[in-house]
Structures are given as structure tokens and as C-alpha cells.
Amino acid sequence: MSSGSPARVRRIPYGGRPKYVKLSPGDDGEFLADVFFEDPRTFSPKPGPLGQIHAWGLYPYFSEDPELNSNSGEVDEETLNLAASDGMQSMMRQMKAQMMYYKNRPEDQFMKVILERKRQQLKDMDLKQLDKCDVMVKITMTGMRNKITKESRVWRQFKVSAGITLSAFQDKVVAPIMGWVRNFHCYTFTDFRDGALFGPESSASVDSMHIAQVGYAYLPDNKYKLAHLFGKEGDQIGYLYDFGDKWQHHIEILKIYSPEESTGKIEIIDGKGMCPGENMNGNLEYADFLDKYDRASYTEKAAQKREVLETPNYKSFGKPPSLFDPAVFDIKAARERLSEALSSSASVRSGAKTFNIPMMPGGEAILDDITSGHLKKGQTSTKQHADDGPGYWRETTSNTKDSRKEAVCASCGKPAGPDVELKTCSGCRMVLYCSAEHQKVHWKASHKKQCTRNHTPQEKSS
Ligand SMILES: [Zn+2]
Ligand SMILES: [Zn+2]
């Protein structure tokens, strides 16, 4: 979330001489965020009012904005706890740096040290068997509460193994359970204990250009597990979806099960509220949208309903809800999205979904050629034409099985691990299972129709 105030005239810290990073001659540090004048080797990020560190601790918090803070009652403490990057300042800085630096901008010099520090710490981290434990989690959309009852308007509760790789967690669990589109916008997970960020490696999402507003850099989320981001029950993990809209969520660890009690099976328990529409401008605007809906007349409600149903997660990539009520969580639909995601290949982040409108005759064919030139082995470029107008969606998909690191059982979602070996379906060699039993269950439920070779699951699998 960027604060609405324009870039203020400010005093450049340390007379424009940073403690560690090197500015190119001619760069006076104008618009460079204050934090980059510090020494990253000794930098100690400051927590927000709820004791959580957001976005590596690079930005001030909303609570430090006198204007927002004085509006007490209007802005809740979850929102005041968020990092407030100055969108205008970061945009001005980006333009300036583009002209002065070919590479290794001061921001990059600083983040390189910060990332390396965290990488080392993760290498030495003792997970204390947490990755062998299932956890009950609750994901809540931050600061989106009913004005009167103060209850969170959009949340989901589910059980998952903490041994799941963060990339698979986002792609096959969080996105489908919430109701967001898979492989569309960029995202980060935050370890609130130190503000460390994790996100998709080589993401091609259009919104990833706004990275200077959400933390500048992150560690690759396909190398770390959910268990790396928390230590005990009650801990929270941040989840930011879409660097443009900045949909803020927090994931609370409600319960940690012992390894003996853990099965690895993903189970959706409960929830509330429809997922907002993609591109509906983030938590605060959607909260206003819901407040307006509460008070709206019948015709106004119908117009708002159309607005939601026109968004990609309801129109192009999901079923419109059978009952339109922003307060309702359709658990059956969420379970269907989850099982579909579990039995599919992992998203190809370098080929994220984009919406294209051909600008000239033959434009689509030209783009087809360019895209196929960039495809790696085992990848396909898929297109989905809109039913109205000339636009179409393009995405790169994988037609090979997932890497061992990121794979989960296509039936239950149990992740592969040091003591968990997943077996490949011998028919299609695409999906993996934690047990012969789950292979049978999945075969009967859906895989019989999807498997490229119509074989019986009892056949030898390797
Ligand atoms: Zn299984
Ligand atoms: Zn198969």
C-alpha cells in the first residue's frame, strides 16, 4: 500500500553520503529512500506497532504517518501495522536511477548484503522437525473488517504440512483456497520475525515492476518451506498478492500437530467472504466496496455484483458463485479449485498469465512466434480467447512432472520430503502420489479421465 501523500521536500540523510552503498558521480541521493543511507551489515529492522517486521524493515509504518494515525477508529491497527512505501518517491527514484546506473544501483548494493545475511541464517536454521508437522492455519485479508462487528470479512482456515515448499504453497494451496487466479500476479511471503521476503524466481508478472514499493528484493520461494517462516503457535506470516493492487493477507499458525499426528493432507475447514475480484485495487478500496454494498439498494447491489463478476477470477478463470453474497465462503467450490490445482503441474512463473489485445493485423501470430522461441523443454504456450472482444490470455504451462522439491501428492497435497518419496503415475508420468491408496482414490475421482494412458492404477508404478 502506498501512502497517498505526494513526495515531500526532505533533507537527504548524512548530507547525501551513504554509510555503505556507493552513489555514482552525479547522484546526490535525491529520492533514494532513507534506509539506503544506512549500513546494511549492521542494519537492524524496526518492528511495527504489532511487533511485526514488514518488507525487510525498509519502510516506515502507516502508524508513523501522523495523518493516518490521527484518524483513530477509521483505520484499524492491522492497517497501521503495514509498511508504507512512498509510491511517488520510489517512482521518481526509479526514473532517475535508470539514467544514472546501468546495473548495481545503490538499492541493489544494499539488498545484496541483506539477502546474503538471511540466506546464511536460513542455511544454519534448525527447523526442529517443524517441516514434518501439519499446521492449522488461518489466512485473513488484513484490515478488512466489518465496521460494526469488527469481524474480518474475508478469511479461510485450513490444515497443511509445514514441509510444503513456499512456491507450491502459493500456487496449489493459497491461491485456489482464497480464490485468486493461479500464476497471474506476483507475490511475497514475509517472515514477520525479521521482515525477510520470499517470492517467485524469474517472475514475468507485469506487476513485478512495482517491486521497489514492496521490498526491493526477495529470496526464491522454491528453495524454502513454510516451516522456515514461523517458530511457534500464534506466529503470523505475511502474504502480499499483486504488487500493483497490494492485497495484504496474514497467515496465523493456530496449531502445530506432532509428526505422529501429521498426515500431510490438506483440508479446508472453514472460511468467510468471497475473494475480491482481481484488479479491484487492494484491501482498503475493497473494504469500502463492501461497506457500500451493505448499505446499497437492490439496483446498486446488482451493479456492484456485475463489477465483481467481470474480474478475471470470476469471469475467465473461475466459476461465478451460484449464490452471490460477498459474505459467503463457498467451501465446495474452494475444494474443487484445490483438488484441480493439486493434480496439475506447478505454474511456470516465467510465463505468468497476461491479457493481450492484438494491436495490428497479424500481431497475435508474431507474439506466438516470439513466445515459442522462449519456451523451454516440456513447456507449452497456451491461449484462451475472451468470449467478447479481440483480447486473449496467454500463459506458459508445463507438461512435465514437478521437481522433487516442489512436488505434492495429487490426491491429498502431502509434500515430498526427506522421508516422503512420491511415486509417479506410470501412465502419464505427470502426477505423483504419496501412496498406492491415494493413487487409487484419485484414479476413481478424476485421474481416469485425465491420464494420457488408460491403465489401471494397480499396474506397477515407479
Ligand atoms: Zn496422498
Ligand atoms: Zn496418469
TrEMBL record:
<feature type="region of interest" description="Disordered">
    <location>
        <begin position="375"/>
        <end position="400"/>
    </location>
</feature>
<dbReference type="Pfam" id="PF01753">
    <property type="entry name" value="zf-MYND"/>
</dbReference>
<dbReference type="Pfam" id="PF07929">
    <property type="entry name" value="PRiA4_ORF3"/>
</dbReference>
<dbReference type="InterPro" id="IPR012912">
    <property type="entry name" value="Plasmid_pRiA4b_Orf3-like"/>
</dbReference>
<dbReference type="GO" id="GO:0008270">
    <property type="term" value="F:zinc ion binding"/>
</dbReference>
<dbReference type="InterPro" id="IPR002893">
    <property type="entry name" value="Znf_MYND"/>
</dbReference>
<feature type="domain" description="MYND-type">
    <location>
        <begin position="409"/>
        <end position="451"/>
    </location>
</feature>
<keyword id="KW-0862">Zinc</keyword>
<keyword id="KW-0479">Metal-binding</keyword>
<protein>
    <recommendedName>
        <fullName>MYND-type domain-containing protein</fullName>
    </recommendedName>
</protein>
<dbReference type="InterPro" id="IPR024047">
    <property type="entry name" value="MM3350-like_sf"/>
</dbReference>
<keyword id="KW-0863">Zinc-finger</keyword>
